[in-house]
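Need residues for this backbone.
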């Protein structure tokens, strides 16, 4: 059985199309699997005007056998004869006495029967599944049209729904199923009759490349041809590529150019304007930004130069505006904008951007010494950090905050590190992280201030909603400290930030919030290892990472889990016992003395290893005592009847547990 389904709509919003093919596949295949429908050759097609799927499946569904348990054997039979209880059970399940079987369970002997399933036609079920699929398909915003009876992402104009190329009786959002569709809005006028096997080919005759992956490859191939021809290098951007793929049904690359005088502007201004405002690709040539660009048209004509001229005219106007803004902004030193930040609200509950600037200065001055960094440049960068928000360029291009701060700082004669820090405060972004000392300090200060302020103002994320990007800020702290291999006491910085706000919030809750981001970021590691590390104490991100590395090394060198098991035995028996004082005069067996000797030997070097953060060595020293630990458990009754001996033995084991807790809490390990 071959199913073809296409929903033909008004243009879908680009914001909803990112990942739409994956959502379609997940939603529909979940429904098919839930209904035991086996399918193959499943394909999803997405264009700006259509959502389509096609796949093959069997004509019938074979229902699985079902085991039905009845009453206890003693209730079903009296003196070997069937009772009314058994007769009722047989009648209810439409089976005969000969079908009855008996099994032994924990509760005793019970009767049961195996009911064979009946095959049923797939087609009626598929129709209902497609209806459910459309209702379940997630969009952030839906709309109503006409009389307001229907709600979907965009008005539906046509539905193609065939099984084995025969029209299926189906209605949705005011449209009924057909066996045809429509091609390109401008290049095709006639209805296109569709068949399952030739769906892609038939639509291509109507100037629609319906397969989004093919459209992407067409664009990439055309860009590659241009680059080879003119010795250019494309500034590749996945987000932009996906967007233009989702905006076109018949993509055609158009190469345009702009006046070289605009190249005097910072390249980020030009690239941002091309990408975010016009959806153009930029090129590099000989290591410099080229005055060529590539636009992706959704139409092909005999005279593409007309389209090229239009693209160039629009871009020229954009660049002319940017040129004016840059010249006007450059008439002022960057610091001249700072005082006016008192007129710009940061957040209604958290004051102005000037208030924030003062907090960032103090917080930077606090963080820098903790990282053994000089704080003078960091404070200067913090003072200038938000000044570019008042420039005309950033007002027009908000995406350039930080970038323009850096450029205007350099034009104002500021130190290069100060200028870089103004840009780096907004990092990490993708693989780009802050690298200068001042940039690291300002980036951390900016994110701690945002998170602490967010918790004070009760702006914490809920579910998938995080309007103030607090999760991203926490992840930024994690990545910055890890990538730069820096130790920082989170609790101290949070407490300092709270004092600057002069308001209270729960420090532990913020630490926990950051801890979750740490675990998510390092989710490739075993989840029990992550829990064991962070639950043994989490206030220093890079320190926790080093402990995780040590524990992970133990995992790799312990394939049979013998070493982990020996250590976890200690945690299992000690549990919440708190004492560590050991009285050697209470030792009864050699195994106690031997374990005490091993623990003392480990403790002699423990302080130095902790100072050096040599956590792997700490675990290895415990592993070396594995045989002694195992012999202790094999030959010593820890829970002795004599209370003093019992507590002494627990104290001995607790000494060992305390050593291991410097690295991880083995209570969380799954062994």
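Answer:
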């Amino acid at each position: 059985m071959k199913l073809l389904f296409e929903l033909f709509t008004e243009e879908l919003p680009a914001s909803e199309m990112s990942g739409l093919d994956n959502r379609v596949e997940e939603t529909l295949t979940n429904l098919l699997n839930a209904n035991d429908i086996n399918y193959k050759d499943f394909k999803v097609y997405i264009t700006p005007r259509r959502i389509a799927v096609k796949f093959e499946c069997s004509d019938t569904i074979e229902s699985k056998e079902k085991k039905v348990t009845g009453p206890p054997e003693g209730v079903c039979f009296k003196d070997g004869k069937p009772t009314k209880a058994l007769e009722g059970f047989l009648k209810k399940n439409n089976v005969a006495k000969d079908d009855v079987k008996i099994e032994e369970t924990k509760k005793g002997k019970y009767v049961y029967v195996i009911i064979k399933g009946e095959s049923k036609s797939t087609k009626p079920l598929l129709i209902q599944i497609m209806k459910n699929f459309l209702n379940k398909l997630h969009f952030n915003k839906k709309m109503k049209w006409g009389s307001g009876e229907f709600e979907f992402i965009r008005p539906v104009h046509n539905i193609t729904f065939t099984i084995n190329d025969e029209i299926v009786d189906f209605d949705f959002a005011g449209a009924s199923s057909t066996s045809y569709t429509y091609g390109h809005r401008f290049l095709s006028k006639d209805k296109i009759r569709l068949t399952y096997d030739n769906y892609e080919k038939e639509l291509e005759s109507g100037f629609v490349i319906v397969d989004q992956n093919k459209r992407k490859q067409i664009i990439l191939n055309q860009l590659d041809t241009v680059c080879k021809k003119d010795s250019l290098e494309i500034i590749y951007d996945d987000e932009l590529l996906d967007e233009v793929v989702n905006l076109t049904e018949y993509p055609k690359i158009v190469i345009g150019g702009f006046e070289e005088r605009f190249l005097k502007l910072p390249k980020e201004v030009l690239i941002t304007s091309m990408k975010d405002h016009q959806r153009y690709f930029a090129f590099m040539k000989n290591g410099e930004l080229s005055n060529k660009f590539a636009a992706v048209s959704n139409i092909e004509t005999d005279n593409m130069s007309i389209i090229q001229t239009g693209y160039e005219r629009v871009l020229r106007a954009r660049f002319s505006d940017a040129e004016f803004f840059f010249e006007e902004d450059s008439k002022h030193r960057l610091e001249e904008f700072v005082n006016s930040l008192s007129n710009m609200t940061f957040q209604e509950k958290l004051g102005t951007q000037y208030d924030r600037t003062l907090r960032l200065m103090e917080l930077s001055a606090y963080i820098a010494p903790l990282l053994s960094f000089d704080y003078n440049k960091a404070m200067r960068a913090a003072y200038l950090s938000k000044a570019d928000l008042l420039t005309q360029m950033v007002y027009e291009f908000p995406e350039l905050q930080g970038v323009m701060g850096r450029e205007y700082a350099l034009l104002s004669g500021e130190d290069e590190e100060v200028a870089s820090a103004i840009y780096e405060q907004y990092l990490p972004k993708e693989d780009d992280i802050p690298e200068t000392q001042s940039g690291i300090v300002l980036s951390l200060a900016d994110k701690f201030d945002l998170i602490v302020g967010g918790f004070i103002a009760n702006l914490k994320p809920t579910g998938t909603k995080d309007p103030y990007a607090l999760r991203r800020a926490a992840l930024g702290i994690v990545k910055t400290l890890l990538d730069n291999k820096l130790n920082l006491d989170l609790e101290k910085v949070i407490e300092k930030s709270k004092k600057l706000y002069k308001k209270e919030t729960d420090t532990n809750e913020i630490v926990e919030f950051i801890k979750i981001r740490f675990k998510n970021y390092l989710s490739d590691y075993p989840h029990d290892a992550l829990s064991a590390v962070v639950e043994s104490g989490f206030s220093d991100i890079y320190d926790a990472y080093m402990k995780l590395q040590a524990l992970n090394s133990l995992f790799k060198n312990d394939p049979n889990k013998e070493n982990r098991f020996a250590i976890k035995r200690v945690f299992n028996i000690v549990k919440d016992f708190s004492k560590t004082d050991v009285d050697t005069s209470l030792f009864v067996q050699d195994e106690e003395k031997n374990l005490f000797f091993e623990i003392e030997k480990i403790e002699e070097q423990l302080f130095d290893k902790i100072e050096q953060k040599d956590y792997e060595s700490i675990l290895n020293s415990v592993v070396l005592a594995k045989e002694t630990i195992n012999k202790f458990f094999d030959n010593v009754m820890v829970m002795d009847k004599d209370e003093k001996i019992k507590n002494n033995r627990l104290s001995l084991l607790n000494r060992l547990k305390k050593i291991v807790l410097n690295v991880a809490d083995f209570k969380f390990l799954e062994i």
